[in-house]
Amino acid sequence: MQAAVLTKPMEIVMKTLPVPRPKFHEVLVKVMAVGVCGSDVHYYEHGRIGRYVVESPIILGHECAGVVAAVGDAVSRFQPGDRVAIEPGVACGKCTACKQGRYNLCPDVQFLATPPVDGAFVQYISIRQDNVFAIPPQLSFEEAALVEPFSVGLQAAFRSGIQAGDTIAIMGMGPVGLMAVVAAKAYGAKTIIVTDLEPVRLNAAMRLGASYALNVSNQDAVQAIHRLTDGIGVDVAWETAGNPRALQAALASVRRGGRMAIVGLPAQDDIALNVPRLVDNEVDMYGVFRYANTYPRGIEFLSSGIADVRSLITDRYSLSQAQEAMERARTNKSGSLKVMVYPNGEPV
């Protein structure tokens, strides 16, 4: 099979590798669509994200879906030809976090495209069957790949306790932020206020269900949010950009007794926050790391047609064009929303 391998920062080389053979409990999937994530771009450009460092050639890509090509001897839930989405984090199932149902915190998780684990920029991938989920006919492979970033929004909704009728501010309309709009909508948020610098992203957020879109390049987001909420502030704020100023704005936008979820990972470790405001207003703050137990719900929501998420895919590339895909995602922040790679040809 063909694989796109990151050999050093800013260099992806096509290599021929053997097709993996599924082990006892594994499913071999013919990969049909892979979304390019911000983490892929960081590894491609810088060779690291925080404590995760690329020390040898690695295959990127973890937002993926495809068709079952073969199954291991112990697999009972799938058969060749099944259309599936892949959850990329294979947890140990034995540690305290796994046993508590918070397997996203498993210290031994093997997450696709996180060093040293290879990812999905390949024609075939083998993965444990409990990380594979059937998708209905109405859900395209592209939409099924988007269940992965959508799951981050679902985890934020779960962690911050979104309820029907809530007002929410989402800071940052990258792909995760845009899918977070859909998650907030799915959980019944009444008013969804979003912020970003790029008009194309703000327009996309409005198409997905946002109530108000604020361009922070020409207005103060906190002032605008308080104006839109009659001076009260939002019930919930999510920071999805990994930007210190957006994080500070999120806290300043929350009402007294409100909640806040931090989704984005900033480049630096230490960020100034208004702790007196946090304490005086008794704001609940939640960290969000990936997701757990979200895929069945995510597939159900996206299959319902809750939003036209396929419209987010602005750029399409073959596997042999993986480097061009990464460059597009890296350099064209104002014109691209979601870059998709098709390892086995673009689905008809």
TrEMBL record:
It comes from the Bacteria. Keywords: Metal-binding, Oxidoreductase, Zinc. Residues 5-341 form the Enoyl reductase (ER) domain. InterPro entries: ADH-like_C, ADH-like_N, ADH_Zn_CS, ER, GroES-like_sf, NAD(P)-bd_dom_sf, SDH-like. Its cofactor is Zn(2+). Belongs to the zinc-containing alcohol dehydrogenase family. This is NAD(P)-dependent alcohol dehydrogenase. The lineage of its organism: Bacteria, Bacillati, Bacillota, Bacilli, Bacillales.
